[in-house]
Automatic annotation (TrEMBL):
<dbReference type="InterPro" id="IPR011060">
    <property type="entry name" value="RibuloseP-bd_barrel"/>
</dbReference>
<dbReference type="InterPro" id="IPR045186">
    <property type="entry name" value="Indole-3-glycerol_P_synth"/>
</dbReference>
<dbReference type="GO" id="GO:0000162">
    <property type="term" value="P:L-tryptophan biosynthetic process"/>
</dbReference>
<keyword id="KW-0210">Decarboxylase</keyword>
<comment type="pathway">
    <text>Amino-acid biosynthesis; L-tryptophan biosynthesis; L-tryptophan from chorismate: step 4/5.</text>
</comment>
<keyword id="KW-0456">Lyase</keyword>
<dbReference type="Pfam" id="PF00218">
    <property type="entry name" value="IGPS"/>
</dbReference>
<keyword id="KW-0028">Amino-acid biosynthesis</keyword>
<keyword id="KW-0822">Tryptophan biosynthesis</keyword>
<dbReference type="InterPro" id="IPR013785">
    <property type="entry name" value="Aldolase_TIM"/>
</dbReference>
<feature type="domain" description="Indole-3-glycerol phosphate synthase">
    <location>
        <begin position="4"/>
        <end position="257"/>
    </location>
</feature>
<dbReference type="GO" id="GO:0004425">
    <property type="term" value="F:indole-3-glycerol-phosphate synthase activity"/>
</dbReference>
<keyword id="KW-0057">Aromatic amino acid biosynthesis</keyword>
<protein>
    <recommendedName>
        <fullName>indole-3-glycerol-phosphate synthase</fullName>
        <ecNumber>4.1.1.48</ecNumber>
    </recommendedName>
</protein>
<dbReference type="InterPro" id="IPR013798">
    <property type="entry name" value="Indole-3-glycerol_P_synth_dom"/>
</dbReference>
<dbReference type="GO" id="GO:0004640">
    <property type="term" value="F:phosphoribosylanthranilate isomerase activity"/>
</dbReference>
<dbReference type="InterPro" id="IPR001468">
    <property type="entry name" value="Indole-3-GlycerolPSynthase_CS"/>
</dbReference>
Amino acid sequence: MTILDKIIANKTKEVETRKMQVPISLLEKSSFFAKATNSLKTSLLNPASTGIISEFKRKSPSKGIINANVTVEEVTAGYVKAGASCLSVLTDSDFFGGSDEDFLKARRTNPGIPMLRKDFMIDEYQIIEAKSLGADVILLIAANLTPQRIQELGRLVKELGMETLLEVHDEEELNRSLCSYIDVVGVNNRNLKNFAEQNVNASLELADKIPSGIIKISESCISQPETIKLLKSVGYKGFLIGETFMKTADPGQALKEFIQDL
């Protein structure tokens, strides 16, 4: 069983428990449910955009604890002040140390920036839940979803006024997963089945395979400004970076210095 298999098995149980604890009717009463969304596409296409999607992540299955000494409010506010184009906040608890409360705190602290709910989405309930938390962007991971499920979940995302980021790792996942409900394609340089890669080869290999009309972003394994320059040269508009900043004492300052080097 791969790491991803373990995460999805755990997530399936978690979602069923959540459904019993908080009904959809209650989620729809959230003050965030009716809020206008902040568009990731618009942000990335802005000529003044840094394109950096800064992530708040306490730990990962491959690295363990990354940073347990900072708050989500100070980190995400620092990211926005430094020039992030979007915020990504982990809400998976068991494997990544995140929570819905982390997302809510980041949302309240930073109302005007696009926010991605970073989790393993497998059920319509989670999409509605994300809307109630104030999410603007939903992550759908091709490695753990069938093409039919991607269409079904993507349709609901669109109906609720949010945007869908489809995450792929190789050409096979890309070809079987693209559909009309996808707003942005993200290439995860780290294979979720083994968390092994430490380079951006996947992004470079898929750069000309992603249709030209779709915004593409590169995710993970980005630690140097020179890497972003390379990725921009092959058409990438966004760059999701977490551990590079989170492993420092002041992630917001680390992002500021990173952008200055760009």
